[in-house]
Amino acid sequence: MSDHLFLFDLDSTITKQEILPTIAEEIGLGKQMRKLTEQAMYENMPFKQSFLSRVRLLEDIPVSQIDSRIAQIPVHEELVRFMRDNSQRCLIVTGNLDVWISGLMERIGMSNNVYCSKGIVRNDRLVDVVSVIDKSASVAQLTKDYVAVGDGSNDAQMISTAKVGIGFGGVRPIAPSVLEVATHAIYEEKKLCQFLERLL
């Protein structure tokens, strides 16, 4: 499988926490955010609808505050090392907003390797969401074969069309829709990285 790409979900794959629920918890909106996140995770609500609902919960918080807090989210360091060591072949594919995750992307060295949703900011406030990423449409544009790693239902299509599709359950249970289409299910970061190294 030479010359293929590696695609990674962000939340609960690269990070050790769900990003938006973590932020919401800190401002007293954790219960509402968890409900929307679980609906998206297990396909009871379309991802786009769920994501926009989650964004509305946080839109009055200064963008710089959210970006700064997300930049501190714990990550799977061994997995991040793999991405850095192979940055020319690794991409992050996430529904999260560019204006919220820019600090985290800079921290892990993937600022130029991310497909994500796009927001417009004025006076440090999110004023509009101009696009919500469709992961399956984004990966359909790729010209190379790829390995895909993720855990949520919005990763299922990306994983189903991968040469090797990996459901990663290192943080939370892998969504049933992912388990149905994945070629592999891995539940520990070290084992995931060992497997990815063998695919280089």
Q: What's the layout of helices and strands?
A:
Elements: E1 5-8, H1 19-26, H2 30-41, H3 47-58, H4 63-70, H5 77-85, E2 90-97, H6 98-107, E3 114-122, E4 125-131, H7 135-140, E5 146-150, H8 156-160, E6 164-168, H9 176-181, E7 184-186, H10 189-198
Parallel strand pairs: 1-2, 1-5, 2-3, 5-6, 6-7
Antiparallel strand pairs: 3-4
* SSE series: EHHHHHEHEEHEHEHEH
Tally of strands: 7
Strand order of the main beta sheet, please? 4-3-2-1-5-6-7
Identify the CATH class: Alpha Beta
Q: How many domains would you count in the coordinates? A: 1
What about the largest sheet?
A: 7 strands, mixed
Helix content, binned percent: 40-55%
Terminal-residue CA separation:
7 Å
Beta-strand residue fraction = 15-25%
Helical stretch tally: 10
Describe this structure in words.
The protein is an alpha/beta fold and 200 residues long. It has one domain: HAD superfamily/HAD-like (Rossmann fold, 3-Layer(aba) Sandwich), CATH 3.40.50.1000. It contains ten helices and seven strands. Helix 1 (19-26) runs antiparallel to helix 2 and helix 4 (63-70) runs parallel beside helix 6 (98-107). The protein starts with a strand and ends with a helix. The model has no long low-confidence stretch (mean pLDDT 93).
